[in-house]
């Protein structure tokens, strides 16, 4: 079948335009059978309802000879109809280009077939089409497939591509269709959808399931990995991997599995599954830290060399009463007041479990000392007292004892039990406590033990002596606190290298003045005192001093007598005159018949009898001595009462000055004897005593008595009865004190008696 294309007519019109260009009018040339003018917009207006335009026709060889014949390059746009190719062509850019081609017949022998009747998804399908004389191709197929290619390619085919594919081949002359009658099956290609990574613990079986959206079988392999003790594997099948991997290192190791899925011969991409094999922590090494702690001790640190692969540390203690803080390394432990000794252990821990536990690390928990019990010891002490011992029942777990005293001035010696305390002279009362101590600290303190510190006497202040006499001074000092008595020292040396008599630590009582007696006249004496109480003595006072005066000796003042009266007289008087200072009146009385005067008064004041009723000889006459201290001065009456009717009695009075007014009588003595000489002896205790004697002859024989050695005649009493006599003698002062004798003579010899007294001088 032959056809003319519209484009051919166009070419014919162009040729005619070229032929009749010279005839163009203003509106252009018109070629038609009607005579109509050309359209004003056209140079050539060809129209016909029965004929077309025919342009130059030539073969390909003839076309190519155009340039040869004209020795030129064909003009751009030169047009021909190529009878060889049956195509309209034009020359452009040095080549002949096809505009349109004609046909000879419709395509024939059309075939359509896929490259394979079975294919896997994701693969590429090639559709193969053949046809004779076809210039156009049109494929259709499942899932809306179309293509104008002769042999189209479908990439990444899916299961939707399963079905029949149809090809229609065509040319300008017509078309023909071919259908592949064999069903194309697109099997799905499995793709593994399970996780690509995992993590397991060494020695723990895996449980990894391989999954995909398509039912498939799987093959897998695994290479060996350094540090994993398992050998390489290949050709393994199955959808679950349960292999137990052993990591022999202390670090995580990755093991890679290569897994290939297969579904009906469709092999999916090789899948890489990486599993991390985590190790258990390494074995714990030796713990370091304090192996001896105290109860109540907190934040005690313990450590261990870092455990490889451990993410935490598990610490354990076999004792009780401890608190382990956390799971780190180092770790701190608090030991409560009731904590006990035990063993500390540790092991490394991670998500895979525990490593090997460490060896035991023994910890000794040392207790505090137990509470102190009651203190025993002296609860009353004196200031200045040293080495006072106190004790407490032994305190368990104490290595030493801490003693404390709330008062002042106490020195505690050491930290033992018992302990000694020195109390200074200024120590005060307070409470004593004790607590046990060891390296862990202190135990509970004891209850207060009250100690009363009694004060020592305060130091006295001595002042100058007063009241000096020939044998005495009066020491004076100020009263001191806390004194119950005073001790007195007296010396003639300022350094008290010697002491006077008994005046060395002499307790004089709680007085602030004391008469120091028995001293030597005209001598300076030094004295000091110490206050004293139950706690002892104070320190010495300052030194006081005083000087004794030169003595005022005893001297005879006056004498008087009353001769014997009787025989029936019971009362008699006489006058006596006393003068001077420190006076003493002495009256001797003699009575017949075993009785002498019964009472004596001077100026109405009774005298004191110091020696009486002494028998004289066989007749039994009585002799007596009477005295009166500080008799009234001047002339006064002596009264004397006799023994009664039928008896004689008489008296002699003697007054003296310079006599001790408080204790005039020093010593006295009596005695009897016979012969021509009589003697009496006294032993005085102080110097300058004055001695007096009454001597009486025996009755019946008139014997005159005369003074002997150490005797001075004072007065005689006259004759009494038939020839008796009595006389008085004195001697003084007597120095030094001691034994002293007075003598008298007894005429031609006979019996006698004597009374002797010594009076002390005024101090």
Task: Describe this entry's structure for a reader.
This protein has 763 residues and is mainly β. It is built from three helices and 64 strands. Strands 16, 18, 19, 21, 22 and 23 form a six-stranded mixed beta sheet that branches. A hairpin with a 2-residue loop joins strand 5 and strand 6. The chain is rod-shaped and about 240 Å long.
Strand content: over 45%
The biggest sheet amounts to:
6 strands, mixed
Helix content: under 10%
**What is the general shape?**
rod-shaped
Summarize this structure as a short list of keywords or feature phrases.
763 residues, 6-stranded mixed β-sheet, 6-stranded antiparallel β-sheet, rod-shaped, disordered N terminus
Gist of the model:
With 763 residues, the protein is mainly beta.
How are the SSEs placed, and which strands pair?
Layout: H1 6-19, E1 29-31, E2 44-46, E3 57-58, H2 60-64, H3 66-70, E4 79-82, E5 87-92, E6 95-101, E7 108-114, E8 118-120, E9 125-132, E10 136-141, E11 145-147, E12 153-154, E13 166-171, E14 174-179, E15 185-187, E16 197-201, E17 208-209, E18 217-222, E19 233-237, E20 240-241, E21 253-263, E22 266-267, E23 271-278, E24 288-289, E25 292-294, E26 300-303, E27 312-317, E28 322-325, E29 331-335, E30 342-350, E31 353-354, E32 361-366, E33 376-377, E34 380-382, E35 388-391, E36 400-405, E37 410-413, E38 419-423, E39 430-438, E40 441-442, E41 449-454, E42 462-469, E43 472-477, E44 485-491, E45 506-509, E46 513-516, E47 524-533, E48 536-537, E49 544-547, E50 555-565, E51 571-578, E52 584-591, E53 599-602, E54 605-606, E55 608-616, E56 621-629, E57 634-641, E58 649-657, E59 665-683, E60 689-697, E61 705-707, E62 712-720, E63 724-734, E64 739-759
Parallel strand pairs: 1-2, 3-4, 8-15, 16-23, 25-32, 34-41
Antiparallel strand pairs: 4-5, 5-6, 7-9, 9-12, 10-11, 10-13, 13-14, 17-20, 18-19, 18-21, 21-22, 21-23, 24-26, 26-29, 27-30, 28-29, 30-31, 30-32, 33-35, 35-38, 36-39, 37-38, 39-40, 39-41, 42-43, 43-46, 44-45, 44-47, 47-48, 47-49, 50-58, 51-57, 52-56, 52-58, 53-54, 53-57, 55-56, 59-64, 60-63, 60-64, ...
